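Lecture notes, continued. The same structure-token format from the folding unit now serves as the input rather than the output. Read the line below as a description of shape only.
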């Protein structure tokens, strides 16, 4: 019987700096705190799953540089029980890193990213021969130069990687980055027929579906559900999952839909929102891997995201699954759809 999650894509070292305020151009802000940690979809996902207490194998595939950041990533993965045999150091390439500027009080963040070794990750780095994991996660599309590039059929090489994963018996999960509008049609939409579980935020869902969802008080929940259904119509095989600060909506090919409101985390407890989306994906995929209903899986997802908000790094606030659930339930949830 298959068991485990294999995750590939962006492996990033985040250097998180907390600012007293966001400065105007040519202005000055004070750095009131700084810490380094994990970044990138597969790194965040696997580390979050480890911290949630996932009782199944966790495996990595990707490229890091042969440098201090690369060694730190490998050591951190091993410390969290993540199999790093598929995570290869590349001589002459620097490890990808992001300077994350987080404003104290609001938790809002701005990213300055160096693509580094991740830009070299191509189809040849993925070998699913003999793979016994149940699920393959790939992220982030639109931030992986070689996989985002068109293959002979004009579609991104990522589609071929996902096709091979599915052909080997793996279910597939995909996340993308909120790149500039106009990048989604070729870079993401064309891979959807090879995706079982799609994770997109409100902006990404708008770009892929063409349906305006809105933000904050202007959020249109009916539109969010229509957007998720549109993504299923465009090829997503099991669940199209749209998440936003207020909650999440998942739609499947049978016409079913599930909603889950976010936990009511007080602003005084929010250290940073960086990594919250990946924590949500980790909690949701843990449930789906274990055969939970989509509703129960989404609840763990929003609770894991809530816990992640309490720490300035992507995964420092994530706790064992039962603790995350208790934390979220103690705060209460925003109204669902």
């Amino acid at each position: 019987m298959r068991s485990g999650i294999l995750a590939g894509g962006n492996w990033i070292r985040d250097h998180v700096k907390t600012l007293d305020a966001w400065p105007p151009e040519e202005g000055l802000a004070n750095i009131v705190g700084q810490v380094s940690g994990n970044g990138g979809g597969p790194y965040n996902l696997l580390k979050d799953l480890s911290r949630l207490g996932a009782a199944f194998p966790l495996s990595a595939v990707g490229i890091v540089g042969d440098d201090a950041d690369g060694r730190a990533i490998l050591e951190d993965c091993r410390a969290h029980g993540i199999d790093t045999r598929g995570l290869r150091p590349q001589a002459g390439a620097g490890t990808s890193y992001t300077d994350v500027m987080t404003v104290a009080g609001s938790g809002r963040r701005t990213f300055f990213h160096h693509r580094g070794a991740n830009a070299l990750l191509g189809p040849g780095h993925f070998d699913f021969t003999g793979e016994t994991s149940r699920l393959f996660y790939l992220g982030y599309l639109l931030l992986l130069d070689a996989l985002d590039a068109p293959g002979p059929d004009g579609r991104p090489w990522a589609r071929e990687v996902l096709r091979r994963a599915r052909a080997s018996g793996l279910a597939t999960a995909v996340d993308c980055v909120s790149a500039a509008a106009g990048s989604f049609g070729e870079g993401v939409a064309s891979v959807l027929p090879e995706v079982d579980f799609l994770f997109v935020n409100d902006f990404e869902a708008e770009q892929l579906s063409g349906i305006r969802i809105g933000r904050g008080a202007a959020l249109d929940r009916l539109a969010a559900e229509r957007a998720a259904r549109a993504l299923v119509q465009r090829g997503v095989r099991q669940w199209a999952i749209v998440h936003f600060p207020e909650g999440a909506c998942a739609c499947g090919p049978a016409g079913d839909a599930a909603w889950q409101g976010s936990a009511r985390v007080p602003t005084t407890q929010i250290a940073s929102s960086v990594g919250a989306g990946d924590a949500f994906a980790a909690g949701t995929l843990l449930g789906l891997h274990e055969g939970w209903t989509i509703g129960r899986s989404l609840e763990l997802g929003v609770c894991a995201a809530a816990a992640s908000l309490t720490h300035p790094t992507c995964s420092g606030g994530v706790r064992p699954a039962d603790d995350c659930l208790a934390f979220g339930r103690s705060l209460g949830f925003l109204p669902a759809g």
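Point for the exam: The chain has a mean pLDDT of 94.
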